[in-house]
Amino acid sequence: MTAKPVVHYELPSDLQPDRLPRHVAVIMDGNGRWAKQRGLPRVMGHRRGVDTLKQLLRCCRDWGIEALTAYAFSTENWGRPIQEVDFLMTLFERVLRQELNEMMQEDVRIRFVGNLTSLPESLQQEISGAMVQTQDNQGISFTVATNYGGRQEIVQAARAIARAVQAGLLEPEHITEAVFSQYLYTAEICDPDLLIRTSGEMRISNFLLWQLAYAEMYVTETLWPDFNVAEFHQAVSAYQQRDRRFGKVKS
Questions:
Q1: Which residues pair with residue 219 across a beta bridge?
Q2: Catalytic residue of the set 62, 77, 115, 226
C-alpha cells in the first residue's frame, strides 16, 4: 500500500509570523446549501465539510497557530431531520476512527466540549479514547464543540461555582473573570483571537459566548465545503490588518 504524501502548507510571505492569531474558531456553515446547489443530498455537504476541516487543521498546524476550535454540532441541531442527525453521529464516529492514527503522527491533541453525555454511547467511547490517546501530544490543540451551546456552558459553570461556594471551597468575593473561566469547558486553552464564519451569516449562533468577548470576526460568503487555504489566507490577512485595542485607546 502506498503511503499518503505528506501535505505541508508554507506560511504566505505577506503574513507576519509574530501577528498570527494564537487561537482560531470556526463556525462551519453552508454544508447543506453547498449540496443543494449541486443537486446532492445534504449529507454529501457534511462529508465534503470534513475534508475542509482536515485541510484547515493541517494549515493551522503548519503556520504555527496554537489552537483551532470547530463548531461541529450545536444543542439546537437535534431539531434537524432525524436521518441527518443520525448520519452526523455516524460520520463523527467514523472520522474519529479513521483519523486517529494520523492525528497521533501529526502531534494533534484533540478535545471535545459540550454535553457529551447526550451523544450515542458508541460515539462517546470513540471520543473518550481519542482524547486519552492524544492527551500528551504537544502540537496543535484541536477542539471540537459537539452538542455544544454557549448559554448551556455558562449555566453549567455557574452551577459548578455555586456548588463550590456551598461546599465552602470558594468565597463569593473571590469569583473573578479568571476564576469563572476555569469552570468553562475551554479552561485549558486561550480564548480565540479570530472567529471565522462561512456562508455569510452575521451571527455567532450561541458559540463560545464568553470566550469570544474580544475576538476579531471574519465573515465570508463562501460556503464551508469551499473554504480552502486561499480563503483562510484572506481571513488571517484581514485579521492582521485589525487594530486590536481591547477597549483601550492608544496613546
A1: 197
A2: 77
Active site residue 137: no
Q: Which residue among 29, 31, 147, 193 is the active-site one? A: 29
Tens-place pLDDT, residues 7-17? 789 999 999 99
What are the tens digits of pLDDT across the range 86-110?
999 999 999 999 999 999 999 999 9
Please state the pTM of the whole predicted model: 0.92
Domains recognised in the chain with CATH numbers: 21-149+193-240 (3.40.1180.10)
Has 62 been annotated as catalytic? Answer: no
**pLDDT of 1 higher than 60:** no
Q: What is the percent of the chain with per-residue pLDDT over 90, rounded to a whole number?
A: 92
